[in-house]
Amino acid sequence: MIPIVAVAGVGYGGYVAYQHLENFFGGQTCRMVDGDREAKKDPEQAANASTITTVAVTLDKLPVQAAHIAVTTSIQESKLRNLTYGDRDSLGLFQQRPSQGWGTEEQIKDPVYSSRQFYEHLVKIDGWRDRPLTEVAQEVQRSGHPDAYADHESEGRIITQVLSGQVPGGVGCRLDKATSSTEPATMVDKLRAQTGARAKVADRALTTTVSSETNAWAVGSWAVTHAEADGVTRVTVGDQEWRRERGRPGWRWHEAKDPASNAKTVRIELA
Fold first, then answer.
1. Cα–Cα 20 to 30 A to 184, which of 21, 89, 172, 225?
2. d(Cα 225, Cα 221) in Å, to the nearest integer?
3. Which of 95, 59, 56 is nearest to 75 (CA)?
4. What is d(CA 120, CA 141) in angstroms, rounded to the nearest whole number?
């Protein structure tokens, strides 16, 4: 019996050591969880996915389905990266081309502009809500690989369900300690441009109250996914908070030590 206990002890010790290594030596990662399904992206990809989503659902008041089509398309076209290169003159999250009338190079590299251009074309398509995603995406994009969008449809659905606020607390990011941050006034402008939310500033914290609890979670998710780029250290939505941490706890939300005033209020704290 002693050898068995010893082996069990070694096994448990090895598991604890593995968890420690995974906590502190894994890459910076954002995880989006919807029930038993999950998607993982690096902070840049997650931030871009969140911007695409909030432009649709909180800024332009489009259904989540529009964001699902757009995020899925961007996964295929750019892997959710705001590319400065592509086939011929293709650029940005959706590989849009200045020569095809999508805008100037600078405009296309603006995630809000490029997302709105995608949605502007999308909503003009007859029956876009009822037709297969890959068919609608192809009608917008005119891609040389018209069936490829279907490969990312499930992942796109997980991402947009979470980032649109349909899954409260569904996104968390494991991040290194912030060494700098965006100035609060600049963050106020960015928040409004990408989500439509208007915030007030006190010290280095932004506070905004939005129209619904779902939108509050969309804005909170946006703040978490932009935490790496903007030096966000804590996000509070109602009585829940996300804290910037390097280990696995960074993937989870916790009961807030200092809750927001109500479930529709979001507080974003900067380093």
1. 172
2. 6
3. 95
4. 12
Neighbours of 124 (CB within 10 A): 10
Locate 50 and state its tokens. Answer: 């969140």
pLDDT > 90 in the chain, percent? 86
Residue 38 CB partners (closer than 8 Å, separation 6+): 31, 32, 158
Run of H or E residues at 20: helix 2-25
157 forms beta bridges with: none
pLDDT tens-digit map of 145-159:
889 999 999 999 999
Q: How far apart are CA 173 and CA 164, in angstroms?
A: 16
Cα 109 from Cα 103, distance rounded (Å): 10
Residue indicated by tokens 């590299």: 109
Q: What tokens does 103 get? A: 């805008």
pLDDT of 94 over the 90 cut: yes
Task: Say if residues 221 and 39 touch (Cβ distance below 8 Å).
Answer: no
Give me the domains of the chain, ranges plus CATH numbers.
34-163 (1.10.530), 172-270 (no CATH)
Please answer whether residues 91 and 105 qualify as being in contact, where contact means their C-beta atoms are separated by less than 8 angstroms. Answer: yes
| Cα 78 versus chain centre, distance | 15
Structure tokens at 139: 């009608």
The answer to whether residue 258 scores a pLDDT higher than 80 is: yes
Q: Is the four-CA dihedral 223, 228, 229, 232 of positive or negative sign?
A: positive
pLDDT tens track for 228-253: 999 999 999 999 999 999 999 999 99
Sequence-separated (6 or more) residues with CB below 8 Å from residue 248: 19, 22, 23, 174
Query: Rounded to the nearest 5 degrees, what angle is found at the Cα of 188, between the Cα atoms of 182 and 194?
Result: 100
Distance, in Å, from the CA atom of 94 to the CA atom of 117, rounded to the nearest integer, reads 10
The dihedrals phi and psi of 222, each to the nearest 5 degrees, come to -60, -45
